[in-house]
Design goal:
Residues 66-90 are annotated as: Disordered. The protein is of the alpha/beta class and 223 residues long. It has seven helices and five strands; from the N terminus they run ααααβββαβαβα.
Length: 223
């Protein structure tokens, strides 16, 4: 229901009162019901208009109160998320080796993938930030072959919009290939367009498997 001001409610009540009075008068004169019935119907019309006006005002106030409550709740949730994000400290390199991948923050997931690819022999440049063109990491092998990598620590599926933006980012940074690494999955459209664009999609199951194997190798080498 629309939210009305006090002036608008008064105008609505007056309009209802006018309609009821005119309707009552028309019926009285049309059927020649007499002055007693006429004044009685006018009185009833006035009472009804007041009742309807009061009901509209109550409903309107309840709507405003609910809207205000929902707004305050959203603001509180927003502040809590902001506070949680600000207070969440980055994990140490050692903690990254044992932390649950799905519980990592976005930046920590990028750091984890950076450590993984660096350990696999790539030179790694971190790009992630505002205006990164969906490129978080740039990998370069010993022959100078460059790969643009986008890391998505998401729960929802990665869509085709990310694929298209990474295609542009790959060109901006002069990379030959591009990979999207996510803890979730990809939409059907994203999968369909990634192949022709020469973009490799690495889903959550693959990420968990390759990180598990890597951590196992590192633990074995450290023992």
């Amino acid at each position: 229901m629309a939210k009305w001001s006090k002036k608008e409610l008064t105008n609505i009540e007056n309009l209802i009162r006018g309609i009821l009075v005119i309707s009552s008068a028309s019926i009285c004169f049309a059927y020649n019901l007499g002055y007693l019935f006429f004044f009685g119907s006018i009185g009833v019309s006035l009472v009804l208009s007041v009742i309807i006006g009061s009901w509209l005002a109550r409903v309107n106030n309840q709507g405003k109160a609910k809207q205000k409550k929902n707004g305050a709740k959203k603001e509180l949730t927003k502040r809590n998320h902001k506070t949680e994000k600000q207070s969440r400290k980055p994990l140490t390199d050692q903690e990254l080796l044992t932390a649950d991948i799905d519980s990592l923050s976005g930046p920590d997931f990028e750091r984890l993938m950076e450590a993984y690819y660096r350990d696999k022999g790539y030179q790694v440049e971190r790009v992630g930030g505002s205006g990164d063109n969906e490129v978080d990491l740039i990998l370069q092998d010993k022959k100078g072959y460059k790969i643009a990598v986008q890391c998505k620590r998401w729960k929802k599926n990665v869509g085709n919009d990310i694929v298209l933006r990474l295609k542009a980012g790959k060109q901006v940074y002069g990379c030959y290939d591009a990979w999207i690494v996510t803890t979730s999955h990809f939409t059907k459209t994203a999968i369909e367009i990634a192949g022709p664009l020469n973009i490799t999609l690495i889903n959550g199951a693959q990420v968990h498997d390759m990180i598990r194997r890597w951590r196992k190798e590192k633990a074995k080498n450290m023992s």
